[in-house]
């Protein structure tokens, strides 16, 4: 049986949607590394930490986890959706499984669960993500031109930002965005600094409803090869927003 200290709190999948790996080959690679390195995982049910575990085997459409020595604890999570979280190569790794059931793997009792459809991979610096205040009017001018063509910049409102990427709001009947799409030489406009040239890779696209009840899309994008000077400018802006939020909270309290 595995043993580990209680891990970090669960990370909000929606907030860090642009860091969720969804390609089946990438998912398989991560799961195999978790298995081969016998990475300690925390098992959560209903947002509550329940027990430590490890992946003990993989099949085409299933994962197998080791059980707790406490049989009552094992029974308490059967047929329930769960989330597993651990650190692989120093990177927080988190994924959800639809349900757990008791099974056998190579002659040993184990939990069995369907393979996840996505895995969140989050480096420490990417925790420092802030929601952008509407008053800041932060915009990302996405370059939609094909390689070699003159730039064609389409502005989108930025919802949140970190050193790892941004989330942008895509209005109805606007640009068609799909995961994996790369936009080179785009322009990120934030207060107090010169416009920043960035390249973006779309990681996830989610349908959401805005304050007016309109059906819009939220695209989570990661920065590609972010220059150090741009990263420093972003970090200064993030600290500024965090300071404003603390001051606001202090006034309210």
By DSSP, the count of extended strands is: 17
Give me the side-by-side strand order of the main sheet: 1-10-7-6-2-3
Helix content: 10-25%
CATH superfamily (homologous) name of the largest domain: Electron Transport, Fmn-binding Protein, Chain A
Helix vs. strand class:
alpha+beta
Number of helices: 3
Beta-strand percent range: 35-45%
Q: What would the average pLDDT be, to the nearest integer?
A: 86
Counting structural domains, the number is 2
The Rg value, from CA coordinates, equals 21 Å
- What CATH architecture label of the largest domain applies? Roll
CATH class value of the largest domain: Mainly Beta
- Uncertain regions spanning at least 5 consecutive residues: 1-7
User: What series of H and E elements makes up the topology?
Assistant: EHEEEEHEEEEEEEEEEEEH
Shape: elongated
Could you name the CATH topology of the largest domain?
Answer: Pnp Oxidase, Chain A
Largest pleated sheet? 6 strands, antiparallel
Terminal residue distance: 47 Å
InterPro entries: PilZ_domain (IPR009875), Split_barrel_FMN-bd (IPR012349), T3SS_YcgR (IPR023787), T3SS_YcgR_PilZN (IPR009926)
Protein name: Flagellar brake protein
Domain PilZ: 123-239
Keywords: Bacterial flagellum, c-di-GMP, Cell projection, Cilium, Flagellum, Nucleotide-binding
Q: Descriptors for this entry?
A:
253 residues, alpha+beta, Pnp Oxidase, Chain A, Thrombin, subunit H, 2 domains, six-stranded antiparallel sheet, six-stranded antiparallel β-barrel, 3 helices, 17 strands, 18% helix, disordered N terminus, cell projection, bacterial flagellum, Flagellar brake protein
């Amino acid at each position: 049986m595995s043993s580990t200290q209680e891990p970090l709190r669960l990370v909000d999948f929606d907030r860090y949607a642009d860091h969720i790996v969804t390609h089946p080959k990438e998912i398989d690679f991560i799961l195999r590394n978790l298995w081969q390195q016998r990475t300690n995982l925390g098992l959560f049910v209903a947002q509550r930490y329940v027990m430590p575990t490890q992946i003990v085997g993989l099949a085409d459409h299933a994962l197998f986890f080791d059980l707790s020595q406490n049989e009552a604890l094992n029974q308490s999570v059967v047929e329930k959706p769960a989330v597993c979280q651990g650190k692989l190569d120093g990177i927080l790794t988190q994924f959800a499984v639809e349900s757990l059931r008791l099974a056998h793997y190579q002659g040993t009792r184990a939990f069995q669960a369907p393979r996840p459809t996505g895995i969140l991979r989050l480096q420490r610096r990417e925790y420092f993500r802030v929601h952008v205040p509407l008053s800041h009017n932060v915009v990302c001018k996405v370059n939609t031109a094909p390689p070699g063509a003159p730039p064609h910049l389409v502005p989108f409102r930025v919802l949140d930002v970190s050193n790892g990427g941004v989330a942008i709001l895509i209005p109805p009947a606007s640009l068609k965005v799909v995961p994996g799409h790369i936009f080179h030489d785009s322009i990120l406009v934030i207060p107090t600094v010169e416009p920043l040239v960035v390249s973006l890779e779309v990681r996830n696209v989610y349908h959401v409803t805005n304050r007016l009840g309109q059906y819009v899309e939220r695209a989570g994008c990661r920065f590609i090869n972010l220059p150090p000077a741009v990263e420093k400018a972003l970090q200064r802006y993030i600290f500024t927003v965090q300071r404003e939020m603390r001051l606001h909270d202090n006034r309210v309290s």
